Amino acid sequence: MSPVVRLxxxxxxxxxxxxxxxxxxIFTIARVIPGDPARIALGPNATAExxxxxxxxxxxxxxxxxxxxxxxxxLAQGDLGxxxxxxxxxxxxxxxxxxxxxxxxxxxxxxxxxxxxxLGVLSARYRDTWVDxxxxxxxxxxxxxxxxxxxxxxxxxxxxxxxIFPIAGRLADSFTVPAVTGFLLVxxxxxxxxxxxxxxxxxxxxxxxxxxxxxxxxxxxLTRANMIDTYNKPFIEMARSYGFPERRIANRYAFxxxxxxxxTIIGLDFAAMLGNAFLVEAVFAWPGLSRYGxxxxxxxxxxxxxxxxxxISAMFLIVNIIVDLLIAFINPRIRLSQxxx
Amino acid sequence: MQRYKxxxxxxxxxxxxxxxxxxxxxxxxRLDEVAVGELDPGKAxxxxxSILMFNVYDTLVLPVQGGPGYAPHLAESWEADGTDFVFKxxxxxxxxxxxxxxxxxxxxxLNRMKALGQGLSFIFTNVxxxxxxxxxxxxxxxNEAYSPFIASLVRLPIVDKKLVMENxxxxxxxxxxxxxxxxxxxxAGTGAYKVVSHNPQEETVMEKNGEYFLDVADAAPDQVRLxxxxxxxxxxxxxxxxxxxxxxxxxxxxxxxxxxxxxxQLLTETGGxxxxxxxxxxxxxxxxxxxxxxxxxxxxxxxxxxxxxxTGDVAQGSPSTGAxxxxxxxxxxxxxxxxxxxxxxxxxxxxCKYDPADFxxxxxxxxxxxxxxxxxxxxxxxxxxxxxxxEIRKVPWALFTExxxxxxxxxxxxxxxxxAVTGDPDTLLYPMYHSSAAGTWQSPExxxxxxxxxxxxxxxxxTEPDGRDAAYAELNNRLMEIAPTVFAYDRQSIFAxxxxxxxxxxxxxxxxxxxxxxxxxFRLMEMTGE
Lengths: 341, 530
Hints:
The structure holds two protein chains of two kinds.
Chain A: H1 3-32, H2 37-42, H3 48-57, H4 64-76, H5 90-125, H6 130-144, H7 147-161, H8 184-190, H9 194-231, H10 234-241, H11 246-276, H12 278-283, H13 289-298, H14 302-330, H15 332-340
Chain B: H1 2-19, E1 28-33, H2 47-56, E2 61-63, E3 70-72, E4 75-81, E5 84-89, H3 103-116, E6 127-134, E7 137-142, H4 149-152, H5 161-166, H6 180-183, E8 193-199, E9 203-208, E10 223-228, H7 232-240, H8 253-261, E11 265-269, E12 273-279, H9 289-298, H10 301-306, E13 317-319, H11 342-351, E14 360-366, H12 371-384, E15 389-395, H13 397-403, E16 413-419, H14 425-433, H15 450-461, H16 465-482, E17 485-491, E18 493-497, E19 501-502, E20 526-527
Parallel strand pairs in B: 1-10, 14-15
Antiparallel strand pairs in B: 2-3, 4-5, 5-7, 6-7, 8-9, 9-10, 11-18, 12-16, 12-17, 13-17, 19-20
């Protein structure tokens, strides 16, 4: 078995155990926090009889292990139950809302890589110059303010005072695009509607940038620190003594080893954005899974809470496996350690 | 720098071309609501649900605009005989599917609502059965005299039976899921607007139904986009940019005021509800009527109204005149408003069997309603002038609904907003004050008073309007005597709107329905083209 396959198998096994643990934990937590989900679901005007009937239908009057048994039996058939918040199957809700969030964080993640890493490289290369100073201040600002603050600031600046970008939603009202994948940037292209694609891309810029700003700052600062550390290594000194141009030293010899810690952090940020996107989604009225997740927690919508947490956990684990593979690809020591084991 | 100018200009031009929007020929009304919109009319409870229901579906009767009583709508006429109500349906009404409206649809709609047992189905518990006498005649049989029955029909939307039966989802028995899966995403009504798309977390898009049985003005919006869960900052920006037309009522007063200052019009709706400060009558010291009266007199009603004022003459509440909101049966005249009387409060406190030095009142406020914290602070300040100590406690809604199920766990003072879901005082007052209804979020007073029970029963059994008015006036007086509640203010919903829309039912009292959500009948609105 190749070392990479072995690594993937090992990670998948661990991930499965983690998912089962998460399901048990969230299943229990969701049921012990105060509040009657049946009462909340039926609204303030429901009678005690209506509430009792719903509790029975949801098996809430049974012991916790029995309830978990029902949940696992349904899950085995791909059924996560019905959301009390939207009155629709949870799987349908997740299928509808997850693509919007994935599209947003994919765009934000791309920004983190395409902006954060080059900024870090530039900062290290021009250390202690005004370029470095400016990048460090901008990075610090990005890291120190939460994404929802940036969301409001960006909205005020670029949608209110300078109405360049749209304020809310994923697409202008005047476009109708058939949903195929749920990813609007893909669906608009599949429909052959270039104007709608441009409009969807324009809509995603501000929320994605607000979400990415913290990660951009973090990636830039980390890359800078690692690059500076690498610049002090003997092999860089050797490259300089050979007379290689600075750009080549930076891009070819210093950047690759410096990228490993940054990549790990970006990977974690990428996965964490699934949960953190809530406030940005709320500010920009982005109909994504994070906003749905918080709404269902507030309404104690048990099935939807468990379903959403499981999906976010699974995404987190998948991203971690991908990052591990990337690092193994970049860092030969990890590949070799797998071979040895 | 010069070499970057051309590519930059080209990129900007391309972006502008790509993102430009096509001019829409039809008029679009955009509004928002906080909660997810429930499209299934059998489950509708919230404000957003009501807006959807009143536009996509029709009911047998409608509240008379600008006055009391109910007018025929899908029904042409009706006759009442004790517990029997016979309705004659209009001829020539068709559902959006093209199916004709028949008495069978009315029977199906009632049976479906009762079978689901959700939403506001509890208001039909008095209905024993419904039967189709012929194609256009339907008879309801009640198990006891219930005079608010006609009023409750504004909450019975008529569903297209044939269409639903063709689209039954998985479920047990002959009726399977009663069409729940289908109706959660599609419309099956006769309403003036039909659903084009429905995303419960984003928006519901509706378009004018060209086959509607009543005339609809050409200026009524061709398309309506009801958005969900927009943040106040987003709504404010959208309205200022001309990308939104009517806000929800849940905007903070400061945001409504800012929008009004920017030139937005303020629309209002009074739906027969009020803000109530409820006292637990089963727990010391508020089991003593004089202690309760002392608090009711010490509360600063004027300051309470000021706290929800938007402008000099518009507020989210109007002064209360008593236990029954102004405009309902038994209400006191609008001019007889309640006011603070500290001397009277001190006298009542002197007659109370408890010494203020011996107790600390627990004043709760619902965590999801930050406005209530201000009222808790106001009460704390008001009551301290009587020498009464109090502690303020924030309680999440979920916890509050559990606490109130036992009198010993129920706080001394709770704050809730309650509405008459049908516009009739019975649906407002019976669940709050009848002894059989104690122990819900509406009745944390745990009131048990024979005179109150008798007046409430009389109010729902007497059929003549004068008799009902007398019954509720009697109830009003009794509630003021025993003060289970501080009747803080009559609630009024305020919406900020652009000048692109005219909504007479939300701006002219003579056109108002007096029922929450019905003012948003889009067929009665007009787009001004500004």
